[in-house]
Give the backbone structure.
Amino acid sequence: MKKILIIGSTGQIGSELSVRLRSIYGDSNVICGYYTPPYPDGFFEAGPAVEINALHIEQIADTVKQYKIDTIYNLVAILSATAEKYPKLGWDVGIGSLMNCLDVARECGCAVFTPSSIGAFGPNTPQDHTPQDTIQRPSTVYGITKVLGELVSDYYFDRWQVDTRSVRFPGIISSMTLPGGGTTDYAVEIFYKAVAGESFVCPLKAGTFMDMMYMPDALDAAIDIMEADPKRLIHRNSFNVTSMSFDPEMIYAQIKKYYPEFQMIYDVDPLKQSIADSWPNCLDDSCARNEWGWKPHFNLERTTADMIKRLQNKLGKK
Ligand code: AKB
C-alpha cells in the first residue's frame, strides 16, 4: 500500500485529491500537509495532517521519514495571474517547493508528482492541437517555473532514478474549493454567479479558447499517471491532458440552458487576456492516451450539469 504525502492539500486540487486518495489507499496512508487557510470542513478529522511550509526542506524531510512516505504530491504554486503581479514570490514558491520535494525524494526514495500546466507553453507554441513535444517559450513567470519543473524533474529521473511523473493541467473546474489567482478561474466563478442568481463579469474576450477539465477527470489523471506501468512511459514530465476546449460564449450558452435569465458582460482584464492569448487553444493529448490510458469522462455538457447540481446544494439554492 502506498504511503502518500500531499503538500498543499487545502487548495483547489489538494482538497479533493486528498479525499480521493484516502478512498483508494486508506485514511491513515495519506498525510495532508497544510499551510494556508482556509481549511476544508472536517479537514483535521479526516486523517493525519501536518503543518508544512514547503520552503522549509526539513519540514518535508521530517514528515517523509516519520510516516515512511513513498509518494509525494507537490501541489504548491502561485497561479499565473498572481505570479505576474508578484514574480519573485511566484518563482520562490514554485521552484523552492519543487526543489525541496525532489531533494527529499532523492534522499528517501520517493516518487514525486508536481503538476505542470498549459502555462508551460507560450506565444510561439502551435496553438491548435498543441503537440506533446513542441516549442516551450512561455511569457509568464508561472510558465517559466513550469518548464523548469518539467526539465528538472526529468533530470532527477535520468540522473538519480527519482520516479518523477506529471501532467500539464488545463484550467480545472470544481465545486469544493475555489481556485485563486489563475487565468482560467473565470470558468469556475461563472458557475457561482449563475447559481447565486447574479450576473457575471467576464475578464476574457469572446473567442478566447483554452483547454479545461472537470475535477473528477483531473483526479484520475493525477492518480493514474502515478500508477502507470513505468515500462510503457516514453515521456514523464509532463503529459498533455485535456477534456474540453471552450471560450466564454460557449460556457455561457451551456449555463443559460439551466438559467435562461443569467447575464454575462465583458470587462476584459488586460493581464489575464494577454496570458490567455499566449496559451494554446486546444492540446493534443494522444501521448497520455497511448502511454498510460488517459481518457476523460466529462465534456462541457456533463461538467455544467454536475457543477450546477453541486453548487445548488452547496449554496442552498435548491
Ligand atoms: C492558471 O490559470 O494559472 C492555472 C493553470 C492553467 O495552470 N489554472
Summary: The longest strand covers residues 30-34. The mean pLDDT is 97. Residues 18 and 311 are 20 Å apart (CA to CA).
